[in-house]
Amino acid sequence: MIHMRKAVAVAAGTVMVLGLGALPAHAENYHDTYLSNWGPGKESSRWADNNRDSVKTSIRFSSCYTDGASGFNSATLKLSKDVFGPDDHYGSRTNKCNTSTWGDQSKGDYYFTLTGVNSGGVLTVKSVRITW
């Protein structure tokens, strides 16, 4: 009877360990922040991506406002890697108060730049989540 209990315990432990490998991938990290009266050219703070996973770098906006008469339409964001010399750029995305994604990035320090606001000159976003 004792041998049977040990066998069941070992089998259950093996299933638990093997099952952990099937869990969905989670982001290495994230940062919650906001934007207040940002104009084109404004840069975010930097974050360190250690590339310990295969999660895509993304920036999610919610509750977006501009000083434009027609309200918020979209904003253009550019992802950059902070390196010695001219920074590496990974393209621009149009954000319509939703999520912009750039794919899995290599190890390094990253930031985004607001390069344009469609309608108005300054942008306010009450909730920003950067995931990497």
Polypeptide structure, described:
There is one protein chain. The chain is mainly β and 132 residues long. The protein has one domain: Jelly Rolls, CATH 2.60.120. The protein contains 1 helix and 8 strands, in the order αββββββββ. The strands form 2 sheets. It has a 4-stranded antiparallel beta sheet with strand order 1-8-3-6, with no helix packed on it. It is globular, with a radius of gyration of 21 Å.
Structural features:
132 residues, four-stranded antiparallel beta sheet, mainly beta, single chain, 1 helix, Jelly Rolls
List the helices and strands and how they pair.
Elements: H1 2-20, E1 30-38, E2 47-49, E3 57-66, E4 74-82, E5 88-95, E6 99-103, E7 108-118, E8 123-131
Classify the fold: give the CATH topology.
Answer: Jelly Rolls
N- and C-termini, Cα separation: 50 Å
Fraction of residues in helices?
A: 10-25%
Q: Flag low-confidence runs.
A: 3-24
Q: What percent of residues are in strands?
A: over 45%
Rg, Å, rounded: 21 Å
CATH class: Mainly Beta
Q: Total strand count, please? A: 8
The H-and-E topology, N to C, reads as HEEEEEEEE
Strand line-up across the major sheet: 1-8-3-6
| Average of the residue pLDDT scores | 86
Task: Write a brief caption for the model.
The chain is mainly beta. It has one helix at residues 2-20; strands spanning 30-38, 47-49, 57-66, 74-82, 88-95, 99-103, 108-118, 123-131.
